[in-house]
Design goal:
This protein is α+β, with helices and mostly antiparallel strands. The protein has a domain of about 160 residues: Mannose-Binding Protein A, subunit A (Mannose-Binding Protein A, Chain A), CATH 3.10.100. Helices cover about 30% and strands about 15% of the residues. The strands form 2 sheets. Strands 1, 2, 3, 4, 8 and 9 form a 6-stranded mixed beta sheet that branches. Strands 5-6-7 form a 3-stranded antiparallel beta sheet, with no helix packed on it. α1 packs across α5.
Length: about 240
């Protein structure tokens, strides 16, 4: 058996193992759902960005404390593996929401480009997010990367990210301003609904940085080389025995 034949054999065994692994993962439910995209594909290493999602779980909007809503979206992110100790390390998330004393744009400030969890640009900057009638793409996707159809999101805010104090529609009020997560317009201010109802919330990440390009892991290369040497040794031993 020559080197090329050995390499082909080793790769076929590797593919078979990979296939078994994937079948096992699907059977166990680990890859049977959408996967959130956490690093935008159009950015180069070292670039900064922020992520935004709409929560798949809901809660009421009766509290007047912004800390309660920040804790809620952080818990949702942590559970999905994109918060503290998650896929990107320790990432803090804030609710895009306004109470009577806090504006959404201050609680969840924008420092650059913002992407949803489907690798789509939502806004280039704070002006594009809070001071424009349209955002580039709907926020739309949940912490798991699943599109939320017709999600009514508690924001307590007007279109510019300022609390709806003149109308008494902030979080903690009897009626609260809501946005539409599936729309580019009216994403933050579309209607109002009772604060005692259940609703979704938007979550904005802290500033993140695109990591440097990864290289093959030394362990992977070592295992591959060890497997190749093992096949060579077995082949040589069989030839020696035959001779």
């Amino acid at each position: 058996m020559n080197i090329k034949a050995l390499f082909t054999t080793l790769m076929s065994r590797r593919k078979a193992f990979t296939g078994v692994l994937l079948v096992g993962l699907v059977a166990g439910g680990s890859v049977a759902h959408a996967i959130p995209i956490l690093t935008p594909t159009g950015l180069s290493a070292g670039s900064s960005y922020q992520l935004v999602f709409v929560t798949s779980s809901t809660r009421d909007a009766t509290s007047s404390s912004i800390a309660d809503y920040n804790a809620f979206v952080q818990t949702v992110a942590n559970t999905a593996g994109i918060g503290i100790g998650g896929a990107l390390g320790d990432v803090n998330w804030s609710a895009i929401a306004s109470t009577a004393s806090v504006n959404a744009r201050d609680n969840a400030p924008i420092f650059g480009s913002v992407y949803n969890l489907n690798d789509q640009l939502v806004a280039n900057d704070s002006v594009g997010m809070y001071d424009s009638f349209f955002i580039n793409n709907p926020i739309g996707f949940t912490e798991s990367g699943v599109f939320l159809v017709s999600g009514l999101v508690f924001t307590g805010s007007e279109g510019n990210g300022i609390r709806s104090s003149l109308e008494g529609l902030t979080l903690g009020s009897t009626n609260v301003r809501v946005g539409a997560s599936h729309l580019s317009a009216a994403w933050i201010s579309a209607a109002q609904r009772p604060g005692a109802n259940q609703g979704n919330f938007y979550a904005l990440s802290e500033v993140l940085t695109v990591p440097a390009a990864t290289v093959p892991e030394p362990v992977t290369l070592t295992l591959f080389g060890t497997g190749l040497l093992g096949l060579l040794w077995n082949t040589r031993r069989r030839k020696t025995t035959t001779t």
